[in-house]
Design goal:
Number of domains: 2
CATH topology of the largest domain: Rossmann fold
Number of strands: 15
Mean pLDDT: 91
Structural class: alpha/beta
CATH architecture of the largest domain: 3-Layer(aba) Sandwich
CATH superfamily of the largest domain: P-loop containing nucleotide triphosphate hydrolases
CATH class of the largest domain: Alpha Beta
Helix content: 25-40%
Oligomer: single chain
Number of helices: 10
Low-confidence stretches: none
Shape: globular
Strand content: 25-35%
Order of helices and strands: HEEEHEEEHHEHEEHEHEHHEEEEH
Strand order of the largest sheet: 9-8-10-11-7-12-13-14-15
Distance between the termini: 44 Å
Largest sheet: 9 strands, mixed
Radius of gyration: 21 Å
Amino acid sequence: MATARPSLGPLQKLMDDPAVSEIMINGPKKVFVEKNGKNVLTDVTFSDEEDLLKTVEPFFTAVGKRIGKDIPYGDVCLEDGTRVNVMKDPVSRFGTAVTFRKFSKQINTLQNLIENGTLTQKAADFLIACIKGKVNMIFSGGTATGKTTLLQMLSNYFDPSDRVVTIEDAAELRFTQENYVSMETRTADENGKGGVTLKDLIANSLRMTPDRIIIGEVRGEEAINMFQAMATGHSGTIGVVHGNSPKDVIARLETMILMSGMNIPISESRKVIASTINVIVHLERMQDGTRKVAYITEVRGLDSGEVMLNDLFTFIFERVENEKVIGKLKPTIKYYPLFFQRFQKFGLLANDIFVSE
């Protein structure tokens, strides 16, 4: 569960600055911010390590989490969507490292993302159709590429009557549905008891009569539970995966299935992936600091034992001009997606959606 923000002390002015998207603390004497896509050293400091810890530890205790000698790292999310990550001694060798990733208050709708160049109107229309058509989706990309923000904006197109269950390590997502349940993992206590994992929460979510299951980040053995949800009638399930490309995401998911310990052959893992996931939406952070949808890719099935990918939209880089990346997300399909006729039947997409502008 998220919480109201405790006192931020010397960090308050950085949190109040709308141009600051991240605050990065490398020990008490070095505080950086990301501003306009660039990392900048600030004049903000803490008196010592103890002073820094007194500022960040209340974020964890307020929600029943903790960091300590036995758990020297953790994540928590504040009520305004800001995510806080802490790495302390002994894993952080030069002092406690803290990252505040702010949720942009300037992005409130999908139209805002279209206007700032994250994606095009046609790509947005296609993703809205995927949401309304309840296809199973993976949002992928590196850290801070905008995966959560795009998913947040697309949630406005969920059916208002849907029962939505979100499962996260740190509850970043903020949905507006009436019938909405937010679940968050829990670290074990000093005696190793009371811990709740993503795998536990996904398994239990299937008993909650969900219309949609949203998994904030899939990174290990819980992947098999996500696939089970997709395969047992829970259409519209969405997972977030870190990866460098749609192809890399498939390889990572194969590895995650192996991590489940179920001794599933790689050929069967690929069958599971190909039969459950419909679309991968991949985002990248460009060299100028902007975030863009780089690929929207259909997972089409198996071909000679390999998962077949069908790029529907691809960001085409053109040039760098005045330190800004110039390019556009364009339709690049080889085949119309297998679910396209169903979308047309229910009036979810126009016929010219894949015609390049």
